[in-house]
Design a protein that fits this description.
lipid metabolism, nucleotide-binding, AMP-bd_C_sf, 7-stranded mixed beta sheet, ATP binding, ligase, 31 strands, 8-stranded mixed beta sheet, 21 helices, GMP Synthetase, Chain A, domain 3
Length: 680
């Protein structure tokens, strides 16, 4: 692990010079001549479009025409839409394809069953290596229908919210699709979250139904998911029933609300009438951490989200009919929603459900899976790539990876070293690496190197090119749009797109304040970005108080709230720092209550356990520094900027400390920081 403050700060502009060398040496990927209509059949009707750049320009300048054409072509409608869009970003109004009716599960399953019922839809890569299970589209449809009928029989109706707390497995996918089929809203919660974090999301979503498994299995370890749900629902009065599926052979205690899921599914018919859903009906809620400490339940709707997932999956990864798509993200995150479930299935693809870890039973797990399942596109996180680099090239080269055609990275910007290793070792220097930028809020990939013209460069560590229909802008602190290249600013979107979130559940005002009001007329992403001389985008990191740990976003306020619940703690401040495996680590500064005497090791253990229990293990601080006081302004605001500079050992960047209530606090914190590092 790279200790905070022990390395020189790196600046974006300095690193770009090196990347230009890589672009010319590694990244010019040539293909056969590019034909717009062959690439995208709808382009035949787009006047003046002959290349990728022209198609991108058309998709932005003729947005309604572009999205209408692809929506008609790519989705099956029960009733056609009347209007393409009715959007006003300044008011947070985002509506697409109104008047249209469709069913997401029909688009993902039924229409493929009609043409290729025995095509493999899912390959479940179970935790136990070499025990994969395949499900055809026909089998997945039957499972989905049984779940849909089961939910209906137990009183779940259109608009009801079903919380899914399950590992990545076929029944979890069927449960998501069953909700979509009957018009219920699904709320998938990552199965690593604690009982308290789960309960908070169940309460906010007002779920009446929870679906879980007896136990989870990951990395050879059993996790007690049913027990976690039992604890959570004690504080969730809206929950009427809990469906419990079986993942292991170990029995669990069943209570009055519990229903044995597979047993009841056998009683159901394999045909389930799909509900006709309005384009703007809610498909799912997905909670993501915010800077206020309270998770945000982002709202995604049926038509726009599904279309955008389909289009990005197809064109960013160059997905072709018959390919096997290997996204290793958990279904509890937006990546699992868009590129493990909805994107591949709406395109009639074969998608891999990865239940294990990259190092179980050994560091060759990913590449053994690539060989066995003949994966063509592999989509993973930079955190995992950096971890696997440590184990050496031999674990990769041991396996045949000749089926790979595209490599993707997601969750955080990928550093140049990891990009080069991924390209050179995993991809044998022949597979393009697509470093994708997007968020839970965007619904799908917004900036990525692909699609591009055949001879276009790919620059390591840069997301590069906006996707079709996406118009990014950089804005300075005064809200002025920066039009020149070779500049940095706040990354905003200048116009809406179908896949974007519509609101925050039960709190549209927070949606407005977070995304629409910081830069009126634009959608604010919360990220900063650099635009190179060539007009390519590189994401430089969060501009708000959100940390990205191993691709998982967590608000600093959320961690602080938990730390402050400890009876020994008076107050705390949490920041993120650069971590060479996880991307960012968690560093907590803690002030104890007066008169408290405790061994530092005992306090660190206690606080780490509290955070693990109330949020998740990945949110547990890597460093906990006990301080007498925190640097504050005279109005009482904690100066986290100063704390970041301390951890980075950037003394010159501390700036003028005279505005602090007690500047001497900074010197005390600096000395404590050095002592803490010397112990590691």
């Amino acid at each position: 692990m790279r200790l905070p403050g022990r390395c020189t700060l790196k600046y974006v502009a300095a690193s770009l010079g090196r990347r230009g060398v890589f672009a010319s040496r590694l990244d010019v990927l040539r293909r056969s001549s590019w034909n717009a209509a062959e690439f995208m059949p709808e382009a035949a009707g787009f006047e003046g479009v002959s290349g990728r750049d022209e198609l991108q320009e058309y998709s932005v300048s003729n947005s309604e025409s572009f999205w209408a054409a692809v929506a008609h072509q790519r989705l099956s409608w029960i009733r056609p839409f009347r209007t393409v869009q009715d959007c006003d970003l300044s008011r947070g109004r985002i509506r697409w394809f109104e008047g249209g009716k469709l069913n997401v599960s029909v688009n993902c399953l039924d229409r493929h069953v009609h043409t290729c019922p025995d095509r493999v839809a899912l390959i479940w890569e179970r935790d136990e290596k070499g025990s994969e299970v395949r499900y055809t589209y026909r089998e997945l449809l039957e499972m989905t229908c049984r779940v849909g009928n089961l939910l209906r029989r137990h009183g779940v109706t259109k608009g009801d919210c079903v919380t899914i707390y399950m590992p990545t497995c076929p029944l979890a996918v069927a449960s998501m699709l069953a909700c979509a089929r009957i018009g219920a809203v699904h709320n998938v919660v990552f199965a690593g979250f604690s009982a308290e974090a789960l309960a908070e999301r169940i309460r906010d979503a007002e779920s009446s139904t929870v679906i879980t498994v007896n136990q989870g299995l990951r990395g050879g370890k059993v996790t007690e998911l049913k027990k976690t749900v039992d604890t959570a629902v004690q504080s969730c009065p809206t929950v009427r029933q809990v469906f419990v599926a079986t993942r292991t052979d170990n029995p669990v205690t069943m209570g009055a609300k519990d229903v044995a899921m597979e047993e009841e599914m056998l009683k159901e018919d394999v045909v389930c009438e799909p509900a006709a859903m309005d384009s703007e009906d809610i498909l799912f809620l997905l909670y993501t951490s915010g800077s206020t400490g309270k998770p945000k339940g982002l709202v995604h709707t049926h038509a726009g989200y599904l279309l955008y997932a389909a289009l990005t999956h197809k064109y960013v990864f160059s997905y072709q009919d018959g390919d096997v798509f290997g996204c290793v993200a958990d279904i509890g995150w937006i990546t699992g929603h868009s590129y493990t479930v909805y994107g591949p299935l709406v395109n009639g693809g074969t998608t891999v459900l990865f239940e294990s870890t990259p190092v179980y039973p050994d560091p060759g797990r990913y590449w053994d899976m690539v060989e066995r399942l003949k994966i063509n596109q592999f989509y993973g996180a930079p955190t995992a790539i950096r971890l696997l680099i440590k184990y050496g090239d031999q674990w990769v080269k041991k396996y045949d990876r000749s089926t790979l055609k595209t490599l993707g990275s997601v969750g955080e910007p990928i550093n140049t070293e990891a990009w080069e290793w991924y390209h050179r070792v995993v991809g044998d220097g022949r597979c393009p690496v697509v470093d994708t930028w997007w968020q839970t809020e965007t619904g799908g990939i917004c900036i990525a190197p692909k699609p591009s013209d055949p001879d276009a460069a790919i620059v390591p560590g840069m997301a590069m090119r906006p996707f079709f229909g996406i118009k990014p802008v950089l804005v300075d602190a005064e809200g002025k749009v920066l039009t020149s290249n070779n500049t940095s600013g706040a990354l905003c979107m200048a116009q809406p797109w179908p896949g974007m979130a519509r609101s925050i559940h039960n709190n549209h005002q927070r949606f407005l304040e977070t995304y629409c009001q910081p830069y009126p007329g634009f959608f604010f992403t919360g990220d900063g970005a650099f635009r190179s001389e060539d007009g390519y985008y590189q994401i430089t990191g969060r501009l708000d108080d959100v940390i990205n740990v191993s691709g998982h976003r967590i608000g600093t306020a959320e961690i602080e709230d938990v730390v402050n619940q400890c009876s020994l703690v008076a107050e705390s401040a949490v920041i993120g720092y650069s971590h060479n495996i996880k991307g960012q680590g968690v560093y907590a500064f803690v002030v104890l209550k007066k008169g408290v005497k405790v061994q530092e090791a005992d306090l660190v253990k206690q606080l780490s356990n509290i955070v693990s229990e109330k949020i998740a293990k990945y949110a547990s601080p890597d460093f906990i520094q006990i301080v007498k006081r925190l640097p504050k302004t005279r109005s009482g605001k904690i100066m986290r900027r100063v704390l970041r500079k301390v951890v980075e050992c950037d003394l010159e960047g501390l700036g003028d400390l005279s505005t602090l209530d007690d500047p001497a606090a900074v010197q005390e914190i600096l000395e404590g920081h050095e002592k803490l590092l010397s112990k590691r």
